[in-house]
Fold:
Amino acid sequence: MSHAPKKKKTEANLIAQAAEALAFLARFAARPTQVGALFPSSRELAEAMLEGIELKSGDIVIEFGPGTGAFTEAVLERLPEGAKYLGIERDPHFHGHLEDRFPGIDFHHGSAEELPDLLSHRGWEKPRLILSGLPFASMPLEIQELILTATRDTLHEDGEFRTFTYPVCWYLSGSMRFRKVALNHFGEHRKSKTIHKNIPPAKVLSYSKPAKK
Ligand SMILES: C[S@@+](CC[C@H](N)C(=O)[O-])C[C@H]1O[C@@H](n2cnc3c(N)ncnc32)[C@H](O)[C@@H]1O
Structure:
């Protein structure tokens, strides 16, 4: 059963989307490095973030940095009965917006590196899917390390960690540094084709749990 109402392309939806884009821009102006993007991700990027993922009852899905809920909506539409979702959002305005937009859904106001504690407080097992909207490239190295360690340590043996990157930023130092740190934690990534219907165009990077040595 879907947890989110199906959307029709009505005028009201278009107005809501425009309002969300404006709210996003305002948060970027207030906290540029923490928000890390001028606009929310597109529906096409949300679909690419979930491509090939089949969620089952009992699965746990974690989302880091849901923002205004671009990926959340697509996740909740696919979340079967008996599966669980937790979003972790650091910005208080986005956190309030998510609670209003998705009533009854579990959103923690805090930072992604808290994941191990949040799982253990809820008595939850290892997540099957961890989706990230975090601006890793503009994050201090020590926070990046903490978040990637928490992600790798909690991820289910058959689980996936997915994030996205902008090809236009591929060779910028922050983006290269993130890929290097992620390589140390997970090994190689798989890269999607470029999703052109996104501002700016983006690629999904997927990581699997490294085999135990
Ligand atoms: C680039 S926006 C992505 C928002 C949304 N996922 C999307 O794709 O439209 C980054 C989001 O990560 C949040 N964020 C930044 N650092 C965070 C952290 N350490 N823990 C949780 N959320 C964080 C920001 O507040 C913002 O909502």
Q: What stands out?
A: Residues 34-37, 40-41, 64-67, 70-71, 88-91, 94, 111-112, 133-135 surround S-adenosylmethionine (CB under 6 Å). The chain has eight helices and seven strands.
